[in-house]
Design a protein that fits this description.
The complex is a heterotrimer of chains A (554), B (150) and C (223).
Chain A (H helix, E strand, L loop, with lengths): L6 H14 L6 E5 L2 H5 L2 H15 L6 E5 L11 E4 L3 E3 L7 H10 L8 E2 L6 E2 L6 H4 L17 H6 L4 H9 L2 H10 L12 H10 L6 E6 L8 H8 L1 H15 L3 E6 L4 H16 L15 E6 L9 H9 L22 E5 H13 L1 H5 L9 E8 L5 E6 L4 H8 L9 E6 L5 E4 L9 H7 L7 E6 L4 H15 L5 H18 L7 H15 L3 H6 L1 H9 L1 H11 L6
Parallel strand pairs in A: 1-2, 7-8, 7-10, 8-9, 11-15
Antiparallel strand pairs in A: 1-3, 3-4, 5-6, 11-12, 13-14, 13-15
Chain B lengths: L2 H10 L7 H12 L4 H11 L3 H10 L11 E6 L2 H5 L2 H12 L12 E6 L11 E3 L2 E3 L4 H9 L3
Chain C lengths: L2 E6 L2 E6 L4 H7 L23 E6 L2 E6 L10 E3 L3 H15 L6 H10 L18 H9 L5 E4 L6 E4 L1 H11 L1 H5 L4 H13 L26 H4 L1
Parallel strand pairs in C: 1-5
Antiparallel strand pairs in C: 1-2, 3-4, 3-5, 6-7
Helix pairs in contact in C: 2-3, 5-7
C-alpha cells in the first residue's frame, strides 16, 4: 500500500490502476446489499468464485462483490459488464450458466427482466424500467466498486474532487460553491448545508468537528446504510472536503451497531484512506490535517437527533438540547460541530468536481440535485431509487415502483417515517420537493417512501408509528414523555373498538401541545403522522367513534 | 467469557469518561450482558458516577442487564415489515417460545427481541436469528427455522 | 456586562447579557410558573411549564424561559391562549401520575386543568429530576439517578451509595413535588438494605419544604 505524499503521486497511481485494468474483460458484479445479503447473495458470490477457480478463468473474467445496486425486490442481483446486463434472483445453481454465457458474450434469457404484464424483456440496465427512470448520480457507481478496495473507487475517479479542493480552491471558495449549489440536508431537515458550514466556520473556537450522521433511524429508510456500506469512500471524501472548507481538524462517522458488514467496510475504508495518506497529517502534501473516528449508536432512535448524537459521542446519554443552542456553535464538548447526513456528504464531491451551476441545473426551484428514496410498503418493486428533485410521485410509485402489489389499489403514500405523514392517492402527481411535500403534510424526511394499499387501516398506522416513538423517547421532557403514550392509548382503544366520545378532541389537543411544547424534533413531530391522518382521513377516524359510541360522534 | 477479557476492556479505557459507551458496547458484545459488579468496575475505572453507567445501560436497548440466551431471535417491526404482517410473525414466535419482547427463557436457549428496521425492507417481514436473515417469512415457516437452533 | 432591553407582557424589561428570560422576568417581578427549576441547580428544561411565546424578527416560537437567553428587542408573552393551553395540558398529563400533588393542584386551578382528563397511571413520580440533579450537582453523591427511557424513565436510588448517604442528608425529599422521592428511598431501603442505613440519630432531617410561589389568578381573570 503506497502512501501518496502529493497530488502528482495520486494522479500517477490512479493512472497505473486504470492502465492495469482491461475494460474489455468481462466483470460479474454480485450485489451484497442488505436485502441481497439476506437472500444469501454471499453463496452466489462464492459459487462464482468457485466456478472461476474450477475453470481457471482468472485471466478471462473478474468477479466482484459490490454494494447495493438498488433493485432489492429482485435480488440476488448480478450485473455483467460490458453491457450492464442485469440478472435477477440469481441462485448458486445459475452460476455455471452465467459464466458460460458471459465468456461467449451471450445472455441468459431466463434471468433477465420481464415486464409482468407484457412479458417484454429488458436486458441492459438502461432498458430495465426500474433503472430507466432514475438519475443515478450517487448510486450509479455502486455496481462498479468492491467496498473493500479503495482502488476501485480511485478507478471511477474517486478523490479527484478532494484534489481539486485542496489544490485549486481555498476553503472559502469550497464553502461558497456548496452554498451556491443550495445543497439541502438529506437527513430530514432540508436545511441548507452551506449555511450550516458557514456558521461552524465562523464560530470563534479554533477546535471544530465534522460529523457524518449515519444513524438512519427512520423506519423504512435504508439508503444511507446502503451508501455507507457500498461506497464508504464517497462519503469520506465529502467529509474531508467539508472539513477543509469549515476548518475542522477531526471528524466522526456515527452509525449503527447492528450491521457487521457496514462496520467492516467503514473501518476498512478509514484504514485504507489513512494508509494512502488521504487522512492524517499533511494530506497529499497540502498542509491540511484531518483525522476521522468511527462511533456507534447503541440501539435507540433518538440518538440520530443531531444534538443527542453529539452527547452520545461524548459518552453521555443521548438527550437532545433545544435547537436555539446551535450545535454549529456549541456541539461536541461544546465545540463548533457540523453534522450532516450520509447522503448530504455524498453529494459534496460531485458539487466540487462539476460545479454548483451543474448541480443547480438538476431538480426544482428550491430543491436541487437528486434524492435517494427507499421505496417500500405495498409496492411491486421495492428498493433504493435515485431521482432528480421535482420528479412526480407518480413516477416513483408507478413507473419505477411498478404500482401496488397483489393487484390492489393505492390508498395512501407515506413519507418521513414516524415523523412524517400520509397523503391520499389522489395527490400522486405532487412533485418530490422539500417544501411542497412539507406543505402537504408529508415531509420527505430521509426519503423513506411507502405505498399503502386499499386494505390499510389508517388508525392502525398512526397507532403503530406512535408505538415506535414511545419506545424511542428519551423521557426528559413532559410533553413527549407523557403526551405520546396518552395519544397511543387513545388510538389503541380506537383500534380495539373502544373509542369513546371526546377521543378526537383529546387527540387534537395532545397533538397540538406535544408539537409545540416538546424539547426536540422527536416529540415535536411525533404527532405529525396523526395530524396528516386527521387532515386527509378524518372520516375514517370519525367512523370509529360513531360506530362505537352508538352514533354520538365526537 | 473469562473475567480477564472484561478486565482488559476496562483497562483499555481507564481514565476516559467519554469512552463509557465504547467500553460498555465491547463488554456487552463479549459477555452478552452487563453484570452489576462489572458496571461498578467500569464506573470506578472510567471515573464516572455509577448512576451514569446505570442510566446508559438501562437507556439503550443494546445493553442487557440480565444474561441473554445462546441465540438472539429478532423480529423486525419496522414500518414496511409492519405493513407486511410482522405482528403475526411476532405472535407466532411468542407462542412457540413462550417469550415476550425482551425476555430470555429459563434454559437460556433464546432471547426474543423486536425492534427497528434493519434496512432489508424489500425482504420483509423478517426473522433474524443470530444475525442471519430469514426474509419473506410467514408464521407457518417460523417453527422450522427455530428448530435449527439448539 | 452589557444591558439588554426586551419586552415581557408589554412591559419594557432591562436585563443583562447571559440572563435567561425566566431570570429577567423574575427580576422584573413577572411570575412564570416552574416545576423542575431550582436556583441552586442548572436549568433543566424538562417540565416545560415555563414555556412562553417569543417573537423574534417576525417569527413566533414557543420556548422554555428557563433556558432561552435574553436578546435585544425580543417580545415575550408569558400568558396567551396557546401558552395557557400548553400549561393546562401538561398539568393534566402530570396529574395522571400525581393527582393530589399540591403544586399541581394549584396550577390546575389557575389553568383550568382537569385531573381526570387522561388515563391514570398513579406512579407519582413526574420525572422533574430535582432529586437526581440535586444529588449530582449540589451534594455530588449521585445516590439517585435516572434509569430507562421514555415513559419508562424513573428515578432509582442506588443501594450501595444510598445506604451510606441518604439518611444523613434527606435534602432531596423536601424538593420533591409529589413526595415520591422519600417513598422511593424508603422502599429501596426496605428491599435492598433493611436495617443497614448509616444513621447517627433517628431524627428526620428533611427541612421545611420551600413552596415556590404560584400565581393564584384564576383563569377567567387572566384573559
Amino acid at each position: 500500500m503506497p502512501k501518496l505524499h502529493s497530488v502528482a503521486e495520486l494522479q500517477e497511481f490512479r493512472a497505473e490502476i486504470l492502465a492495469s485494468r482491461d475494460l474489455a474483460k468481462p466483470c460479474i458484479a454480485v450485489c451484497a446489499g442488505a436485502a441481497c445479503d439476506g437472500m444469501d447473495s454471499a453463496a452466489v458470490a462464492a459459487a462464482f468464485l468457485a466456478e472461476m477457480d474450477k475453470q481457471k478463468l482468472g485471466g478471462k473474467l473478474e468477479v466482484r462483490t459490490t454494494g447495493c445496486h438498488g433493485y432489492c425486490e429482485k435480488g440476488p442481483n448480478v450485473v455483467v459488464t460490458p453491457g450492464e446486463i442485469c440478472y435477477f434472483e440469481v441462485q448458486p445453481t445459475d452460476v455455471a450458466e452465467v459464466v458460460a454465457a458471459t465468456l461467449k458474450g451471450e445472455v441468459v434469457d431466463r434471468l433477465v427482466y420481464k415486464d409482468p404484464n407484457t412479458g417484454a424483456q429488458a436486458v441492459h440496465m438502461s432498458e430495465v424500467p426500474f433503472y430507466k427512470h432514475q438519475m443515478r448520480l450517487l448510486m450509479g457507481d455502486n455496481p462498479k466498486i468492491d467496498p473493500m478496495r479503495i482502488d476501485d473507487y480511485l478507478a471511477v475517479g474517486g478523490y479527484a474532487a478532494l484534489v481539486k479542493a485542496l489544490t485549486e480552491m481555498t476553503p472559502v471558495q469550497v464553502l461558497d460553491e456548496v452554498k451556491k449549489a443550495n445543497l439541502r440536508g438529506r437527513g430530514g431537515g432540508g436545511f441548507p448545508a452551506g449555511s450550516k458550514w458557514e456558521t461552524t466556520r465562523n464560530a470563534p473556537e479554533k477546535t471544530k468537528y465534522v460529523i457524518v450522521n449515519g444513524h438512519e433511524g427512520e423506519s423504512a429508510a435504508f439508503m444511507d446504510r446502503a451508501m455507507l456500506t457500498g461506497n464508504p469512500h464517497k462519503i469520506l471524501e465529502g467529509l474531508i472536503i467539508g472539513a477543509y472548507a469549515i476548518g475542522a481538524q477531526k471528524g466522526f462517522m456515527y452509525t449503527r451497531h447492528d450491521m457487521p458488514l457496514l462496520e467492516k467496510h467503514v473501518r476498512n475504508a478509514l484504514v485504507q484512506a489513512k494508509e494512502y495518506g488521504l487522512l492524517g497529517e499533511n494530506i497529499l502534501g497540502s498542509g491540511f490535517d484531518f483525522e476521522c473516528e468511527l462511533h456507534f449508536d447503541v440501539g435507540i432512535f433518538v440518538s440520530g437527533e443531531s444534538s443527542a448524537l453529539m452527547r452520545s459521542i461524548e459518552g453521555n446519554p443521548p438527550e437532545p438540547r433545544p435547537k436555539y443552542i446551535r450545535t454549529s456553535v456549541s456541539g461536541i464538548w461544546d465545540k463548533p460541530s457540523n453534522l450532516n447526513n450520509v447522503e448530504t456528504w455524498a453529494n459534496v464531491p460531485q458539487i466540487i468536481s462539476k460545479g454548483a451551476d451543474w448541480f443547480t441545473s438538476i431538480g426544482s426551484e428550491k430543491s436541487k440535485g437528486t434524492k435517494l428514496i427507499s421505496l417500500s410498503g405495498n409496492v411491486v418493486n421495492s428498493g433504493i431509487v435515485e431521482v432528480p428533485m421535482g420528479t412526480p410521485l407518480r413516477t416513483l410509485a408507478f413507473d419505477i415502483g411498478g404500482g401496488v402489489r397483489d393487484g390492489k389499489t393505492l390508498k395512501a403514500i407515506h413519507f418521513g417515517g414516524a415523523m412524517g405523514g400520509s397523503i391520499p392517492a389522489d395527490l400522486i402527481d405532487a412533485p418530490l420537493d422539500f417544501d411542497g411535500m412539507s406543505k402537504l403534510g408529508a415531509p420527505i424526511g430521509a426519503g423513506g417512501l411507502l405505498l399503502m394499499d386499499e386494505d390499510t387501516d389508517m388508525i392502525e398506522v398512526a397507532r403503530y408509528l406512535l408505538d415506535f416513538l414511545v419506545n424511542e423517547s428519551c423521557g426528559k421532557c413532559a410533553p413527549c414523555r407523557e403526551g405520546m403514550p396518552q395519544m397511543l392509548h387513545i388510538l389503541t382503544n380506537m383500534t380495539q373498538g373502544k373509542g369513546k366520545a371526546g377521543d378526537l378532541e383529546r387527540l387534537e389537543d395532545l397533538a397540538e401541545v406535544t408539537g409545540l411544547g416538546s424539547l426536540c424534533a422527536l416529540g415535536k413531530t411525533s404527532a405529525d403522522p396523526l395530524k396528516s391522518m386527521l387532515r386527509y382521513f378524518k372520516p375514517e377516524y370519525e367512523a370509529r367513534i360513531v360506530n362505537i359510541a352508538g352514533g354520538s360522534g365526537t | 467469557m473469562c473475567e480477564r477479557d472484561i478486565d482488559d476492556i476496562i483497562e483499555k479505557y481507564r481514565g476516559q469518561p467519554s469512552s463509557l459507551i465504547h467500553a460498555l458496547v465491547e463488554i456487552q458484545h463479549a459477555n452478552h450482558w452487563l453484570p452489576r459488579e462489572v458496571m461498578h468496575q467500569v464506573a470506578d475505572a472510567l471515573e464516572v458516577p455509577f448512576s451514569q453507567v446505570m442510566q446508559i445501560a438501562s437507556f439503550y436497548k443494546a445493553f442487557s442487564l440480565t444474561p441473554k440466551g445462546r441465540h438472539e431471535v429478532h423480529v423486525c417491526t419496522g414500518m414496511t415489515c409492519h405493513l407486511r404482517g410482522a405482528a403475526k410473525l411476532q405472535a407466532m414466535v411468542e407462542e412457540l417460545t413462550g417469550l415476550k419482547d425482551g425476555e430470555t427463557d429459563a434454559e437460556s436457549r433464546f432471547t426474543f427481541e423486536t425492534g427497528a428496521c434493519l434496512g432489508s425492507c424489500s425482504i420483509g417481514p423478517e426473522l433474524i436469528v443470530d444475525g442471519k436473515h430469514y426474509g419473506r417469512m410467514t408464521p407457518e415457516k417460523v417453527e422450522e427455522v427455530l428448530k435449527r437452533y439448539e | 456586562m452589557s444591558e439588554i432591553i426586551l419586552t415581557i407582557d408589554d412591559k419594557e424589561v432591562k436585563a443583562t447579557a447571559g440572563m435567561t428570560v425566566l431570570q429577567a422576568a423574575q427580576q422584573a417581578g413577572i411570575v412564570i410558573p416552574t416545576l423542575c427549576h431550582h436556583e441552586k441547580l442548572e436549568a433543566f428544561g424538562g417540565c416545560r411549564l415555563c414555556i412562553v411565546e417569543v417573537e423574534v424578527r417576525g417569527w413566533t416560537n414557543y420556548v422554555v424561559s428557563c433556558l432561552y437567553p435574553v436578546a435585544k428587542d425580543i417580545v415575550v408573552r408569558t400568558r396567551s391562549e396557546k401558552v395557557d393551553k400548553i400549561r393546562k395540558v401538561i398539568v393534566e398529563e402530570l396529574m395522571a401520575h400525581a393527582p393530589d400533588a399540591p403544586e399541581l393542584v394549584k396550577l390546575a386551578e389557575v389553568y383550568g386543568a382537569n385531573r381526570d382528563r387522561f388515563e391514570r397511571q398513579q406512579s407519582f413520580c413526574i420525572v422533574c429530576g430535582l432529586c437526581v440533579r440535586y444529588c449530582n450537582e449540589v451534594k455530588q453523591k449521585n445516590a439517585v439517578g435516572f434509569i430507562d427511557n421514555g415513559a419508562e424513565r424513573e428515578i432509582s436510588f442506588i443501594p450501595e451509595i444510598a445506604k451510606n448517604e441518604c439518611w444523613e442528608c434527606q435534602e432531596c425529599f423536601a424538593l420533591c413535588p409529589t413526595s415520591y422521592a422519600q417513598a422511593a428511598y424508603l422502599l429501596t431501603e426496605a428491599l435492598a438494605f433493611p436495617g443497614e442505613r448509616k444513621a447517627t440519630d433517628h431524627v428526620s432531617r428533611a427541612p421545611e419544604p420551600t413552596r415556590r410561589v404560584i400565581p393564584l389568578i384564576p383563569v377567567a381573570a387572566a384573559t
